[in-house]
Amino acid sequence: MNIKIVRQPLFFLLTYLKSNSLQQHQVASFGVSQTRVSRLTTALLGVLN
């Protein structure tokens, strides 16, 4: 697996967790919609667990 493919979702999830789960922080930082942030974090947290 390409490390760049792994790093981006991992970075996204770690910044989400560090910012105390503030989705607006992710929206501003990554330039995606709140709906997209919600879907991504749900999916990534599911994989992490």
How does this structure look, described?
The chain has 49 residues and is mostly helical. It is 80% helix and 0% strand. It is built from 3 helices and no strands. Helix 1 packs across helix 3. The protein starts with a helix and ends with a helix. The model has no long low-confidence stretch (mean pLDDT 81).
Tags for this entry?
single chain, mainly alpha, 3 helices, 80% helix, 0% strand, globular
Q: What does the secondary structure layout of this molecule look like, with pairings?
A:
Blueprint: H1 3-18, H2 23-30, H3 34-48
Taken from the alpha-carbon principal axes, the silhouette is: globular
The string of secondary-structure elements, in order, is HHH
Q: Which percent bin holds the helix content? A: over 70%
Number of strands: 0
Which class best fits the helix and strand makeup? mainly alpha
The average pLDDT value, as a whole number, equals 81
Radius of gyration: 10 Å
Summed up, the helix count is 3
Indicate the low-confidence ranges by residue numbers. Answer: none
How would you sum up the major sheet?
Answer: none
| Straight-line N-to-C gap | 20 Å
* Beta content: under 5%
Pfam family, one: HTH_Tnp_4
InterPro entries: Transposase_HTH_dom
Organism: Hymenobacter fastidiosus
Protein name: Transposase Helix-turn-helix domain-containing protein
Q: Can you summarize this structure?
A:
The protein is built from 3 helices and no strands. The chain is mostly helical and 49 residues long.
